[in-house]
């Protein structure tokens, strides 16, 4: 029976390489695959993980969303939260606050960061309102692209749409589960806005000439993301009415409400006229002054007040999305701002962006500049072409500056000790200038490989290893602009092959033996950025001289897996024969279309990760996060003498044991 169990979870990749269909740990299965799952598969993964350890499963769900300490995948988080809302309602609602509280440490900054942002609350409520939050039992295709889903839409009749939304909200509020979510989110916004209103009153009371900057920085972003009456989320949920009514009954001391409302008492304001007055008051006297105080750029953009925008205070995503608009409407000031950033006289935000977003932006703008240059001689409208080129150059400068800001924010957390990246740029990884990262994992692979090369300690910094039958170390000149570095990686020779074992047996070990490298100077960690579509496994023998002699294994999954394990064990023996420990392997999956695993939960020296966030690199930096005794009876991470003894489960528990998740609680 044990023999049957040992082969029951063996499978192959698309390229006939051996793999596992599960890891023997439900928690680890979910940790690696929840981000690319939906429907029935998602429900099964999370239900099994919850049975194994509810506390760690709850942390895992918040880890999906965490911008600073997790994978920063809001869509995957919404799907997982939908499962939690369906199965454990009280736990889901109780922990909503952990999306917006500043619980994540940010070294060098005055205040912490939050796992998500206030808009997440409205997104969750909107999804619940249209019955799109709870996981569907039907399978959703993982191979749909954005282009494939697009459809032409008929003109919107706003009157009919408003009626439909109203009827839907009335129907949903009759459901106790939805009503509990609705009230909880309204109360969170009211609590945040009330605190900020009190702080705003204190700021307004300061004597003239007093520096208000420190107090303004203490304001939250609740007012920025709070629903504006009759716009966006409020059209679907009408949540502004609930927030304004709760604010009225809370009666902040600094506000005098309209006199017509003074006679209204009770928990609710039921008249339509009173509700309209409250919504108007909420917008004019709460949202508008708070948004003005924290310099929300969207407010100034919509008012055509471009000259009043303080570019150094524009958030990462807003700058990334609107740099073209800034250039078009305020060219002189924006160009001067970029010059100041390049001279380090001013700052630009980029720490919360995903690295592949910047890599794809740089690649696309380089391509646009090249196209305009080639088309210049035969252009019908050369002036228009020149404008297009100027916009592309500006967007390129913004992306380059934001990349440097991202690197700076990661450096604060430490550096990568004895770590090197293996970057997969094979054909299955897609094209860096087309589509999105879900369909083209080459962009995350390139971006994370560059970050690894940048953050690694000498002498392993400034380079990466190609993923091929003949792997080579490629030196990168990180002093060059990001665009040149991207091109060098993408143009690397991958030899129509992705042979992982060759990295250890054809490159690293022979090099160490030839140069008589001391064990303490040996590379300790190899991070493989790939879609995990490795080629068919080759069983090999590794003699004492470190030479590599491959022999092709048969395609039976059990034989392939035995070949991989035997080959890996042979590599371990060869390394130890020369006095070395085999480097820790980090399998970093970048494909949403893969549900296989490279190792079992107890395999020492192997780590498995997934996702596009650079924040996950921080798990390999600095001091180790200690295990928490209160996570579960047996979940404390044992102190290891070295990372060679770390198993995939150990690493998962280390990641989920970060203090920022300590506030999560199980209620039901």
CATH superfamily of the largest domain: von Willebrand factor, type A domain
By secondary-structure content and strand pairing, the structural class works out as alpha/beta
Helix content: 40-55%
Tell me the span between the first and last alpha carbons: 37 Å
Number of domains: 4
Reported for the largest beta sheet, the result is: 6 strands, mixed
Strand order of the largest sheet: 5-4-3-6-9-10
Number of strands: 10
Mean pLDDT: 83
Question: How would you describe the shape?
Answer: globular
Q: Any idea what the CATH architecture of the largest domain is?
A: 3-Layer(aba) Sandwich
Determine Rg (CA atoms, Å). 27 Å
Total of DSSP H or I helical runs spanning 4+ residues: 25
Domain DUF7788: 419-655
Pfam families: DUF2828, DUF7788
InterPro entries: DUF2828 (IPR058580), DUF7788 (IPR056690), UCP015417_vWA (IPR011205), vWFA_dom_sf (IPR036465)
Domain DUF2828: 13-416
From the structure above, extract its key features:
alpha/beta; 25 helices; 668 residues; 10 strands; two-stranded antiparallel sheet
Question: Which helices and strands, and how do they pair?
Answer:
Blueprint: H1 2-8, E1 10-12, E2 18-20, H2 26-33, H3 39-52, H4 54-65, H5 74-87, H6 89-94, H7 118-129, H8 146-149, H9 158-173, H10 176-204, H11 213-217, H12 222-225, H13 232-237, H14 239-250, H15 272-293, H16 297-302, H17 316-329, H18 331-342, H19 355-375, H20 382-411, E3 419-423, H21 442-455, E4 463-466, E5 473-475, H22 482-490, H23 500-514, E6 525-530, E7 538-541, E8 549-552, H24 557-577, E9 584-589, E10 606-610, H25 648-656
Parallel strand pairs: 3-4, 3-6, 6-9, 9-10
Antiparallel strand pairs: 1-2, 4-5, 7-8
Helix pairs in contact: 2-3, 3-4, 4-5, 5-7, 7-10, 10-14, 14-15, 17-18, 17-20, 18-20, 19-20, 19-21, 19-22, 21-22, 23-24
């Amino acid at each position: 029976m044990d023999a049957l169990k040992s082969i029951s979870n063996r499978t192959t990749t698309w390229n006939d390489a051996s793999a596992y269909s599960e890891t023997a740990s439900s928690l680890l299965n979910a940790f690696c695959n929840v981000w690319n799952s939906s429907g029935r598969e998602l429900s099964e993964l999370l239900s099994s993980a919850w049975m194994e350890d509810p506390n760690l499963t709850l942390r895992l769900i918040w880890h999906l969303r965490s911008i600073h300490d997790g994978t920063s995948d809001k869509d995957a988080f919404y799907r997982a939260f939908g499962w939690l809302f369906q199965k454990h309602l009280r736990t889901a609602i109780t922990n909503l606050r952990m999306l917006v509280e500043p619980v994540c440490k940010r070294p060098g900054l005055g205040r912490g960061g939050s796992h998500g942002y206030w808009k997440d609350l409205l997104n969750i409520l909107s999804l619940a309102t249209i019955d799109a939050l709870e996981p569907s039992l039907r399978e959703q295709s993982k191979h749909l692209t954005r282009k494939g889903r697009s459809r032409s839409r008929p003109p919107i009749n706003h009157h009919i749409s408003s009626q439909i939304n109203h009827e839907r909200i009335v129907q949903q509020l009759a459901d106790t589960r939805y009503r509990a979510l609705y009230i909880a989110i309204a109360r969170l916004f009211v609590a945040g806005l009330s605190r900020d209103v009190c702080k705003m009153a204190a700021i307004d009371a300061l004597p003239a000439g007093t520096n208000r900057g420190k107090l303004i920085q203490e304001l939250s972003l609740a007012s920025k993301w709070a629903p504006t009456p009759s716009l966006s989320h409020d059209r679907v949920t009408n949540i502004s009415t609930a927030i304004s009514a709760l604010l009225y009954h809370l009666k902040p001391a600094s506000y005098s409400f309209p006199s017509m409302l003074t006679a209204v008492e009770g928990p609710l304001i039921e008249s339509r006229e009173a509700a309209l007055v409250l919504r108007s008051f909420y917008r004019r006297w709460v949202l508008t002054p708070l948004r003005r105080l924290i310099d929300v750029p969207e407010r100034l953009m919509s008012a055509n007040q471009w000259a009043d925008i303080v570019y150094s205070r524009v958030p990462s995503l807003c700058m990334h999305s609107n740099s073209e608009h800034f250039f078009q409407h305020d060219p002189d000031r924006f160009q001067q701002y970029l010059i100041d950033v390049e001279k380090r006289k001013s700052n630009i935000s980029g720490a919360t962006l995903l690295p592949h977003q910047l890599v794809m932006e740089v690649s696309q703008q380089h391509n646009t500049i090249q196209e305009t240059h080639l088309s210049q001689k035969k252009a019908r409208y050369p002036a228009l072409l020149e404008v297009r080129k100027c916009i592309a150059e500006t967007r390129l400068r913004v992306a380059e500056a934001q990349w440097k800001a991202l690197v700076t924010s990661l450096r604060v957390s430490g550096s990568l000790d004895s770590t090197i990246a293996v970057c997969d740029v094979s054909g299955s990884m897609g094209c860096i200038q087309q589509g999105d990262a879900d369909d083209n994992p080459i962009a995350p692979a390139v971006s994370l490989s560059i970050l690894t090369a940048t953050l690694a300690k000498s002498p392993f910094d400034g380079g990466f290893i190609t993923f091929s039958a003949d792997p080579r170390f490629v030196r990168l000149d990180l002093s060059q602009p990001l665009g040149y570095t991207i091109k060098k990686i993408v143009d690397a020779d991958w030899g129509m092959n992705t042979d992982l074992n060759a990295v250890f047996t054809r490159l690293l070990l022979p090099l160490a033996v030839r140069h008589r490298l001391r064990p303490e100077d040996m590379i300790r960690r190899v991070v493989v950025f790939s879609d995990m579509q490795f080629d068919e496994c080759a069983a090999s023998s590794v003699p004492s001289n470190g030479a590599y002699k491959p022999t092709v294994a048969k395609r039976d999954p059990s034989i392939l897996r035995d070949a991989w394990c035997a080959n890996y064990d042979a590599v371990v023996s060869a390394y130890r024969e020369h006095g070395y420990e085999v480097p820790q392997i980090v399998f970093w999956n970048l494909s949403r279309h893969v549900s296989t695993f490279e190792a079992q939960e107890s395999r020492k020296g192997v780590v498995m990760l997934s996702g596009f966030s650079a924040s996950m690199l921080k798990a390999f930096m600095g001091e180790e996060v200690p295990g928490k005794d209160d996570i579960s009876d047996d979940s404390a991470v044992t102190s290891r003498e070295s990372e060679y003894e770390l198993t995939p489960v150990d690493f998962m528990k280390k990641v989920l044991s970060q203090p920022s998740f300590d506030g999560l609680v199980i209620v039901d």
